[in-house]
Amino acid sequence: MKLEIKGLTKRFGSFTANDHIDLTVEPGEIHCLLGENGAGKSTLMNMLYGLLEPTEGQIVVDGEPVTFSTPGEAIEAGIGMVHQHFMLVPVFTVAENVMLGREQTRRGVLDRKAASRLVRDLSDRYGLKVDPDALVENLPVGVQQRVEILKALANDAKVLILDEPTAVLTPQEIDELMAIMRGLKEQGTSIIFITHKLREVKAIGDRISVIRRGKVVGTAQPSASEAELAELMVGRSVQLTVDKAPATSGAAVLEARGISVVDPRGHLVVKDVSFEARAGEVLGIAGVQGNGQTELIKSLLGLVRPDAGQVWIDGRDISRHNPRESLEEGIGYVPEDRSHDGFVGSFSVRENLVLDLFRNEEFSRGPVLKRDAIEANARHRIEEFDIRTETMETPVASLSGGNQQKVVVAREFSRPLKVLIASQPTRGVDVGSIEFIHKRIIAERDRGTAVIIVSTELDEIYALSDRIAVMYDGRIVGTVDPSIPREEIGLMMAGATTSAAANGGAA
Amino acid sequence: MTTTTTGPAPASPGPGAPEAPVRDRADVRRQVRLVITFGLVLASLVVFALLVDDPAFTYLLGEKRTAEFVPKDGNATYISWGAVVIAAIALVLAALDRFPRGWKGALLGILVGLAFYAGFLMWAYTDQAEGGIQVFIANPIPGTIRIATPLVLGALAGCLCERAGVINIAIEAQFLSGAFFASVFSSIAYSSLVFIPVALCAVFGLLGGVLAGVLIAAMLGWFALRYRVNQVVLGVVLVAFATGLTSFLLGQIPSDHKETLNDPQVLEKIEIPVLADIPVVGDALFNQTLLVYLMYASVALVTFLLFQTRWGLRVRAVGEHPKAADTVGIQVNRVRWQAVLLGGVFAGLGGAYYTVGSTGAFDREVSAGTGFIALAAVIMGRWHPVGATFAAVFFGFMWNLQNQLSFVQPVPGELLGAAPYLATIIAVAGFVGRVRPPAADGEPYVKE
Amino acid sequence: MSETPKDPLGPGTPDNGDQGQGTTTQGAVPAGKNDAARNGAGRDRDLTSWLPTVVDSIAAVVLALLVGALLIMFSTPRVVESLSYFFSYPWDFFKFSGEAVWDGYRALISGSIGSGTAWTRTLERAAPLICAGLGVSLAFRAGMFNIGAQGQILLGALVGGFIGFHYDLPPGIHLLAALLGALVAGAAWGAIAGILKARTGAHEVITTIMLNYVGRFTMLYFLGKEALQRPDSDNLLSPPVDDSAAFPTIAGVHVGVLLAVVAALFVWWLLERSTLGFEMRAVGANPDAARTAGMSVARVYVSAMALAGMLAGLAATMTVLGRQDSLTDQVAGTVGFDAITVALLGRTTPLGTVLAGLLFGALSAGGLSMQGAAGVPPELTQVLQALIVLFVAAPALVRGIFRLRGQGRKADVMATGW
């Protein structure tokens, strides 16, 4: 199936998210769509999938112009999509998820057996191993993604759109996914592969279209260098690494010993984890999403009470502290999901900048807020951190992702810290803000703060860390030096304890 | 996340760290809670048993004294101390952390509950002689079923709506308007010139109840789905609206027209031949009105619809992850509309109970907040029609107990009156706690 | 009504990541979205952002009155009869309808603001609605939907009233003691729901509704005691409070009405100027972020519900210490439920609650004279109140009907889902 996009435009009010985009996907081609966060890739794909209606332009399938007003029509036309945030019902089984929307019944009763059979057939044919009767919420993300692909294949998709599919996978799983993509391509399926990762487009793409600020700004061959692609994507030359001096590690500031956490569903998600964070050093915690990092960090802060183990700061046991006491011990925290945990969306920038500071003498006297001080603080931080907001009264929810993150970072960096814990500090943030936030983190390290960075992006881990701890299945499988090759870390992220782990950076 | 994942290398534990056995704090809390509960049950049962002076009591297998059911005598001693033994066993099991989980645990829990009930009854019904009136323990099942009927129907409506992702606090509103219009329809059918057989007038009333329930459901759907009004707020407002409207309309019925508009025919009892002869439960379950049989059928129907049909799969998908449903071509709001309206049918039937199903004429306080109890049953039953039914029956049981005990001396009537409501609070707070509602419950679905 | 406005652009919002440019144009952000969002917070926006909501509210009231007019028409026998010969002589129908609606609404207005006594009655009816409505609003801002004002009022009335008629204290002290008793009892009753939510996660909508019933039976239980029985009555009725425990009156209006205004100012100060209010609003808008920022969500829930109950207890004093009503199980009337609609109509802000309380007080006072003068059933006001709130909650509907333009701000209603 040949898919052409001609002059497709999407406007929201006066804002143009997609500006006359032209794109052709040949049958059996892997066409990469490269662009940074917020460039308009997802808007384009949502139009292609009938989730958004184009303002102008045309979609042409095999020479026939088509319009999709619902996803159903796009599916009918042979377009399948694997969404960045999986469109799976967590409490349904794999088979139920695959059958949803195209259910077979026998005398009015759902034919679950037929659905299981279909899942088994498809998974055999395409080599996607899945248990059809497993509940989706119990599956690891990598497998959930296979279910998403199966869903599309069950609808006979001829064009498969993969929206940022690698964000949640280990390097090994990414390799597997690429193998699956190649297999699909051989069977004649066209694939649109959306990503912002340069390495991946070079590895798998047949052709690369780069999109920036809603426009296709160029096409490239997979042979192009990473620097070229990055410049095309961002619109200026990009520094791919962070300038930093070697760390001058001091004493251990934060120590965790034997931390175990049981989650509300009764699973042991953090298993006897011990580590230490030292002054003036960045400890990177690498690992695929969902291997216990979230719960480990929350237990350090007192957001979750660890079921076993202790945490010390400067030798004081803080494992029974509540979040407020932990913050008062000098922990700064940038949560992984900023809109969930990091700020109050309806609060103004001014209010969010003191969200965890308003009790300090600087900002309140007894029960009364000091409004002048809070305002002065907001003016100061907005300038210092270059937060792009119209006024300090603008609700944070209406800022862009990068500026929202800057609000959180500005707040956390605006008091003296002993330990800085940043989870996914640059997730969903534009390149300019990434550079800025990375610089500030290194500056904080150089001031002698112990820094812990949790990231699922290996690039970020390598860019910032002085030591790397790798988590898999609730454990730290090893702590290594950043000079270790990516492949080894990749193996550790899948659970292997390498020889490198033994002689790694723990020394 | 389990370890049976994809990784190419098998999971091996961290460097030399034998896994320390970790006991979940929630698990410890569960044990503590069980021990405290059973301890209290045991203590009160012992007190009940000791307070009995004269162990003689009388009981009745039916609800009322009839030719068929005559009072019999019993001895409280064995029952009281038997209950104490059961509670003691449960306490020991809990203290040793051997209390079973899953359905076995539930069964044992119910057994302890029954033991408490029995011990309590013994205390309440013995030593009554000096009052002069003969009191006997009557069969609680018929009353329970009767009172539970509207609760179950209302809870089914709640399940349907909330499984589809629409919070329905307006069950009380549906009850009120269902009750009112059932009465009006039945009365009109009886007194009007339209030829309807007398026996069908009450059934015609049910139709009126259903229409009214669906009407309120339509308002709920209209404001919640079309205008995306906060559904909790909406529900409360709809209750206020229905309360005002029904009492306004009731005030509009002139007293000289009362018999034509608010004097409904009441549903007759229908005895099911063989089943009604089963001892103890038969008469209670199978000598009831059409509405009660409809209630039985509704539970089965809703359960089947939700879990075995295409429509049910879609309803649940829409309530859990509407966007996922949308991306496979399901029209989210249409499915939600269907679920809300179908829910209105059941809630309207439930409302009809309060007039044509039981006492007759409509009155401002007929439903007395039972719509909210039905809602509590939905939550206690974890949004499952069968679970909600059990919860509703439990509330019916409490209510019935209150009615029966109002003739007995030792317990103050106000405390008994508050008992069903207190039971709801304890149930929602203690046993259910943080339950997981359908993930998208109460969230309007907006296409970008 | 999700609290955090989802970015309608999805990932489409570009950020001016290019720092070299140095311009801070936000031109790329769509104006419409920003307008709506900008109205949500801040202090210089107070006047401008209030405007559309006032328009919405007035439109909702007008629309409800129109529906009410229909109800009046069809509850008037003359009008219904004229329908039977509508096609031969339609004038009758319009004439009778017009007269019925005119009479009804004229009585409504004259009975609420038409005279000094009408004003007194309006104010005395508005005061408890305002106090209890403030309680509902306050809890709402902290993310709790408090349906329990009714029970909180009952408990406040019980304790305040008991102190008022049972003990013999010097005038000023007696009033203070009774007032304090009512406040503390209301607060304690309210706090139960807060504690249950904080400790077990039990949803406050269920627990507060149930506590209303429990409160009623508690009242009945104590009314059955001899100490609370009015000597000259066979009904379950207590004596009225002593004069030494009653609010003094100024110009025919008891001082409690002033307390309602003070309460509104207090709630405003609490929410906008205090640390506890800051925490409450944060917890109400995003409890996860509040917890991460070191706030104790449990403490906020309990204190918000205690304060809400306290305000309901204050509402109880309006009748028991103000009008010197006897205690019965009906002493709260429907104030507790009307308070919810008052709070919602007032968009859970203190000023809005005061205005909405005055409106509902007027409706309630006028409803009585509507019945007396025009034969319109008093239940009509209840329907009107529900309709007003329904229309306020769905501004899009009202705007569609009146073809009003403008974006308006979303209602400040927070709770979504269970």
UniProtKB/TrEMBL annotation, chain A:
Provide the taxonomic classification: Bacteria, Bacillati, Actinomycetota, Actinomycetes, Propionibacteriales
Give the keywords, sorted. Answer: ATP-binding, Nucleotide-binding
- InterPro entries linked: AAA+_ATPase, ABC_carbohydrate_import_ATPase, ABC_transporter-like_ATP-bd, ABC_transporter-like_CS, P-loop_NTPase
Record GO terms (molecular function):
ATP binding
Protein name per its UniProtKB record: ABC transporter ATP-binding protein
Residues of the ABC transporter domain: 3-238, 254-498
Highest taxon, organism lineage: Bacteria
UniProtKB/TrEMBL annotation, chain B:
- Which protein, by its recorded name, is this? ABC transporter permease
Instruction: Tell me where it resides.
Output: Cell membrane
Organism (species): Nocardioides deserti
Q: Where are the transmembrane segments?
A: 32-52, 78-96, 105-125, 145-161, 173-196, 202-225, 232-253, 290-307, 339-356, 368-401, 413-432
Its membrane topology, per UniProt?
Multi-pass membrane protein
Lineage of the organism = Bacteria, Bacillati, Actinomycetota, Actinomycetes, Propionibacteriales
Q: Which UniProt keywords apply?
A: Cell membrane, Membrane, Transmembrane, Transmembrane helix
Q: Where is this region: Disordered?
A: 1-24
Source superkingdom? Bacteria
Among CDD domains, the record links this protein to: TM_PBP1_transp_TpRbsC_like (cd06580)
From TrEMBL, chain C:
Q: How does it sit in the membrane?
A: Multi-pass membrane protein
Q: Which InterPro entries match?
A: ABC_transp_permease (IPR001851)
Region feature Disordered, mapped onto this chain: 1-40
Q: Which CDD domains match?
A: TM_PBP1_transp_TpRbsC_like (cd06580)
Annotated membrane-spanning segments are 54-74, 147-167, 173-193, 205-224, 244-271, 300-321, 327-346, 353-371, 383-402
- Please tell me where this protein is predominantly located: membrane
Keywords noted in UniProt: Cell membrane, Membrane, Transmembrane, Transmembrane helix
Stretches of Low complexity bias are at: 10-27
Where in the cell is the protein located?
Cell membrane
* Full protein name: ABC transporter permease
Q: Which organism is it from?
A: Nocardioides deserti
